[in-house]
Amino acid sequence: MNITTNRIRNIAIIAHVDHGKTTLVDKLLQASGTVAAGQDRMMDSNDLERERGITILAKNTGIYYNDYKINIVDTPGHSDFGGEVERTLQMVEGFLLLVDAAEGVLPGTRFVLSKALALNLKPIVVINKIDRPDADIERTENSIHDLFLDLAQESSHLEFPVLYGSSRYGFMSTDPLVKTDSMTPLLDTIINNIPAPKESTDALQFLCTNIDYSEYLGPIAIGRIFSGSIKLGQQVIVCRNEEKSAPTKITKIFTFVGLKRVEQNDAICGDIVALTGFEKDSPIGSTICNVDNPKPLKYVAIDEPTVSIYIIVNNSPFNGREGTFLTSRHIKERLTKELKTNVALRVEPTAEPDVFKVSGRGQLHLSILIETMRREGFELQVSSPEVIYKTIDGQKSEPIEFMVIDIPGEYQGIVMERLGRKKAELQNVDHFSNGRMRMEFKIPSRGLLGFKSQFLTDTRGNGIATFNFYGYEPYKGEIVVRTKGSLVSMEPGTVTAYALDNLQERGTLFVEPGLEVYEGMIVGEHSRDNDLDVNPCKGKKLTNMRASGTDDQVKLPPAKIMELETCLEWIQPDELIEVTPKAIRLRKKGLKAHERKRG
Question: What is the distance between the alpha carbons of residues 580 and 343, in angstroms, rounded to a whole number?
Answer without folding.
Answer: 25
